[in-house]
Amino acid sequence: MTRLLVPLDGSAEALAVIGPALRIARTLQVPLELMTVHDPVRGEWAADIDEVAAGIAYEHVEVSVVGTGWAGDVIVGLVADQPGTVVCMATHNRDRLTRMVVGSVTEHVLHHAAAPLLMVGPGHLPEPEDSGYDRALVCLDGGPRDEFAIAVAECWARQLKLELELVHVTESSGVDGATARLSRIAERLQESGRAAAATVLTGTHPAQRLTELMAERPKTLAVLASHGRVGLSRIVLGSVSSKVLQASPLPLLLTRAP
């Protein structure tokens, strides 16, 4: 990671991700860049971006104002121009995810940018900005995206010095199999020098069980993988991921699986 990029649109909701982004930037001592696309016609730009930057107690805060273009394309272009950029965005829309991401900047960035997307949703609980993160909670569903989520989490764990906690929710009949699978993955990570543990939760409502666990894990990032072929709107609408995004008290690292 070489830069934390925080797009702002003038709304109070967009500011919610600055705290998590700042905690990561401070840990890595990389720039925190606030950006906005100047759109005086629709009003969807952060006219107060300089004041917001001045209020952040960090010496590596940068500001960029793009004069024209659609925010989705601008963000994707900025990511392409500087590899290692992590885009940080927030949404506090409490309606169905359909209204939040279909055709939106969020959907476009996740689908097209060659970088993970750090998001906070309406359930996010702010934590002190002067402390870092200790753990990555890697949410696994037993499918083909798991290995990609683990690889991304391991990369972040190496840079931020995080412990990894692999989590899977299953019905009671699947506990033994899930425990064995996650334990094997944890052992493999431990052999490569990572601190890793496995947690298997039981229940018929995975999103609820995951968010309950997240509430018990302060100073933690959660990692979820979506499928890059069809994008966020097809993968998480009405799914466990959308419900987790809505309710999670933790920042979520959404990453596009190949």
Automatic annotation (TrEMBL):
<keyword id="KW-0067">ATP-binding</keyword>
<dbReference type="InterPro" id="IPR014729">
    <property type="entry name" value="Rossmann-like_a/b/a_fold"/>
</dbReference>
<dbReference type="InterPro" id="IPR006015">
    <property type="entry name" value="Universal_stress_UspA"/>
</dbReference>
<feature type="domain" description="UspA">
    <location>
        <begin position="2"/>
        <end position="120"/>
    </location>
</feature>
<keyword id="KW-0547">Nucleotide-binding</keyword>
<feature type="domain" description="UspA">
    <location>
        <begin position="133"/>
        <end position="256"/>
    </location>
</feature>
<protein>
    <submittedName>
        <fullName>Nucleotide-binding universal stress UspA family protein</fullName>
    </submittedName>
</protein>
<dbReference type="InterPro" id="IPR006016">
    <property type="entry name" value="UspA"/>
</dbReference>
<comment type="similarity">
    <text>Belongs to the universal stress protein A family.</text>
</comment>
<dbReference type="Pfam" id="PF00582">
    <property type="entry name" value="Usp"/>
</dbReference>
<dbReference type="GO" id="GO:0005524">
    <property type="term" value="F:ATP binding"/>
</dbReference>
